[in-house]
Amino acid sequence: MNDLCRILEQVERCEKDKLALATIIRIHGSSYRKIGAKMLFWEDGRRFGSISAGCLEDDLAIHSIEVMKTQRSKRVIYDLQDEEDFTWGVGCNGKIEIFIEPFIYDSNISTLKKNLFNGKRIITIKPLINKQKHETYLFTWEGQQITNEKKKLDIDISRLLYAFIHSTDKVKIATISGDDFLLEKNYPKNQLYIFGAGPDAEPLARLASSLDFSVIMIDPRESRCNRDFFPTVEKLINDHPSVFFQHHTINDSDFVIIMNHHFQRDKQILENLPFEKTAYIGILGSKKRTERLISTLNSAQKKKIHFPIGLNIYAEGPDEISVSIMAQIIEVRHQLLSI
To answer: Where is the XdhC- CoxI domain (predicted)?
Structure first.
């Protein structure tokens, strides 16, 4: 799950609220959530997200209230390795370190949201020391700082950034000029293009939207491609494929599902897709039909296509098939994040 994007959507609507953000920064052993998982706390007791299977959240809420009152961050360690200790719950079998910080929707966080929702990957750097004045420094994937001068990190960390960007780490704790800093990779919401607004696309669009994908539905039929059938999608585009590609670009790491059930439209899509950029291409249809559809593609292009689409869970009907498709896409998404 893209916890940060979901949280940023929440906090934009409550700019004046006192908030605390909890992030898993270290794990020894196993845990329910991975490093980088986040949870948001409000002063009035509201919560958003999860850090564990439910065994840590109440205690984290107490620490979060303290952080909101003092406006000082803190680090908390939970040792879940002792299966005889029922204090935190049994089964995680790991030691988890969580960083809790005051979270204010200021111009800096607004800049972070704007970049992420425009499809950019951003590195955040923040001090782990316990002090009242908190700074979050923003850097592009190329290592350039993008915040204003008031939030300038006046330390040369170019080598550190380069090593971090090219590593498989999602989060890193680094010592800079004697102080600990938290470096974190933040990814935008993935865009999922669904070509074909038939009834079988409805459960797929709903499920994809709930799994942090920005869904773009493309179909020339206004009678089908509308909010009545697809209320959760981000964009509805009533274009034929040939027209769509004249005005729109598929970007790096975008996902594409072709389910028009219209041979010529599907062929037009494949003729215009930027195969080298697209993270995932899935075609819904019989094996025989798909083989005929991709017969003119080269071997490298054919390797990018998933068919039969979805994981083989013996799915039947639109709802189960949607689950199998999204399971496969989630698998591909996490493989890309680990590269």
So the answer is: 17-79
